[in-house]
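USER: Note each token:
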Amino acid sequence: QVRLVESGGGLVQPGGSLRLSCAASGIIASIDAVDWYRQTPGKQRELVARMDSEDTTTYANSVKGRFTVSVDHAKDTVYLQMNSLKSEDTAVYYCNVRVTTGWVPTEYHEYDAWGQGTQVTVSS
């Protein structure tokens, strides 16, 4: 079983930066892919960043050039670095991580796990 714990959200002024973290716990063999989503009240969850199994990254046009997704495999933690934040980035941010668990290949199991969400508020 996999548990994800998000951190790093908060209140920041426009133009500022935040780094969101999403730490996976469990018997993690590998982190295979990562998505970061955000959601505001009354709107559908929006995909903002993705890193696939080949470490290829893609971003929503609204965050391209400002947000960066990364993975620290040694720490089983994924990150979303957010720079030049704007008021429209205000949302609850969720990580969605595909992981492989198990000590040995014969015990490997794939999981799709979600973080609990962290609030990001960009306001002066």
